[in-house]
Amino acid sequence: MSDVNGVARDQLRAFVERIERLEEEKKSIADDIKDVYAEAKGVGFDTKVLRKVVAIRKQDQNERMEQEAVLDLYLHALGMVPAPEEE
Amino acid sequence: MSDVNGVARDQLRAFVERIERLEEEKKSIADDIKDVYAEAKGVGFDTKVLRKVVAIRKQDQNERMEQEAVLDLYLHALGMVPAPEEE
Amino acid sequence: MSDVNGVARDQLRAFVERIERLEEEKKSIADDIKDVYAEAKGVGFDTKVLRKVVAIRKQDQNERMEQEAVLDLYLHALGMVPAPEEE
Amino acid sequence: MSDVNGVARDQLRAFVERIERLEEEKKSIADDIKDVYAEAKGVGFDTKVLRKVVAIRKQDQNERMEQEAVLDLYLHALGMVPAPEEE
């Protein structure tokens, strides 16, 4: 019999093993991603910026443009960016 | 006049400064917490366990006891803890 | 020619696409893990505890036992657990 | 006597209570910060952008300008921004 105090031992073990296998795969892919960034760095790319590029590509581009415009406005109001030309 | 392209410059600056002041205070208290842990470590306490104690005290204790009981059951079913006595 | 202001356009695009493909795979495996937990929940397992089991299996078991012993000591000192039997 | 199995009960309790008091203060300031953002939102500011402004002000501004320049280069190379004027 496979129950321990009402816990289906084999079923529990199977779930745990499936999760562990998937977590290993996930970890392995996360390592691959790090390797690609390292490779990009090795040929001269700025990986911090590269990460930002990847993040930006996930965003809605219209929404992003609008946010950048509001950001410029705020930074300008705070004197944190040079005034736009011809103002 | 205090508007820059419709942004109320003084109001914006006031919000930013209030947030920055509060964030400094928050940072300062976070540093104090680290100091208390360092002091506890200095007189021999295990700070990893101390953090766990603090976390446990935030939990509902009945709920915690129930979860610990289920955890024991699962670990036992997986052969990860010695069998309870007299079984 | 594939350079834009000194940026190797094709190389950049290749890196970005490799990263995006890997991130999709990672996301897909993360979804699979969620599905396994959902399935375990569906047959009656406590997924919060199941997550803890998976985390515990990653730890060094001797270290874990030691930490649990210290935790019991601290909780006991604070009157947060019933005194051990026969004291 | 104040020791329980070698744990200085009063000292442990004092540390825990100091930590809990500081954590409450930290939580209270975090709530204050949320309130300021809510107030800013209430008078029409975009709080997502406001958070970004606060983050930008923490950065080294020269470093930030350089990173923005590299980002523009990469986005441009990927055809993700309109070409700069007069190129």
Description:
- Chains A, B, C, D: Keywords: Coiled coil.
- Chains A, B, C, D: Residues 5-39 form a coiled coil.
- 4 copies of one chain form a homotetramer.
- By secondary structure, chain A is mostly helical.
- Chain A has one domain (1-78).
- Chain A is built from 3 helices and 2 strands; from the N terminus they run ββααα.
- Chain A has helices at 9-42, 47-58, 61-77; strands spanning 3-4, 7-8.
- In chain A, strand 1 (3-4) and strand 2 (7-8) form a beta hairpin.
- The radius of gyration of chain A is 25 Å and the shape is elongated.
- Chains in contact: A-B, A-C, A-D, B-C, B-D, C-D.
- Chain A binds chain C through residues 8, 11-12, 15-16, 18-20, 22-23, 25-26, 29-30, 32-33, 36-37, 39-40, 43, 45, 50, 53-54, 57, and chain C through 8, 11-12, 15-16, 18-20, 22-23, 25-26, 29-30, 32-33, 36-37, 39-40, 43, 45, 50, 53-54, 57.
Largest interface, chains and sizes: A-C, 26 and 26 residues
Tell me the span between the first and last alpha carbons of chain A: 82 Å
Radius of gyration of chain A: 25 Å
**What's the helix count of chain A?**
3
Could you give the topology of this structure?
Four copies of one chain form a homotetramer.
Chain A: E1 3-4, E2 7-8, H1 9-42, H2 47-58, H3 61-77
Antiparallel strand pairs in A: 1-2
Which tags fit this structure?
homotetramer, 87 residues, mainly alpha, two-stranded antiparallel ribbon, 3 helices, 72% helix, UPF0335 protein HTY61_18900 (chains A, B, C, D), coiled coil (chains A, B, C, D), DNA binding (chains A, B, C, D), GapR-like_DNA-bd (chains A, B, C, D)
